[in-house]
């Protein structure tokens, strides 16, 4: 399934640039809390389950690892923008 825009442009047109930093951080916190709630009780065999995402076979663990690293990039970006 082709994407309509590259991942680094998916935020465009959603008004994130106009939101206060506190609200952006709260939205990120809420989204990640919901994600953690989904995976909190997974058993090891459930982490190994595989599926297809954009034509590539991936496991729940691989997807979770990608999301973690993705978020680390956003946190670094926030720190740079805030001068910390």
Structure description:
This protein has 84 residues and is mainly alpha-helical. The protein is built from three helices and two strands; from the N terminus they run H-H-E-E-H. It has helices at 21-39, 44-47, 60-82; strands at residues 50-53, 56-59. The protein has a two-stranded antiparallel ribbon. The longest helix is centred in the last third of the chain and has 23 residues, at 60-82. The radius of gyration is 15 Å and the shape is globular.
State the helical fraction.
40-55%
Supply Rg. Answer: 15 Å
The parts where pLDDT drops under 50 for at least 5 residues are none
Mean of pLDDT:
85
What would a concise description of this structure say?
The chain has 84 residues and is mainly α.
Topology:
Layout (H helix, E strand, L loop, with lengths): L20 H19 L4 H4 L2 E4 L2 E4 H23 L2
Pick out its properties.
84 residues, mainly alpha, two-stranded antiparallel ribbon, 55% helix, globular
């Amino acid at each position: 399934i082709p994407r309509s825009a590259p991942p680094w442009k998916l935020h465009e047109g959603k008004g994130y640039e106009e939101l206060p930093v506190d609200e952006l951080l709260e939205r990120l916190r809420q989204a990640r809390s919901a994600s953690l709630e989904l995976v909190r009780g997974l058993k090891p065999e459930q982490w190994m389950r595989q599926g297809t995402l954009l034509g590539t076979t991936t496991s729940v663990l691989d997807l979770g690892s990608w999301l973690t690293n993705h978020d680390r990039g956003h946190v670094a970006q926030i720190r740079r923008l805030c001068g910390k």
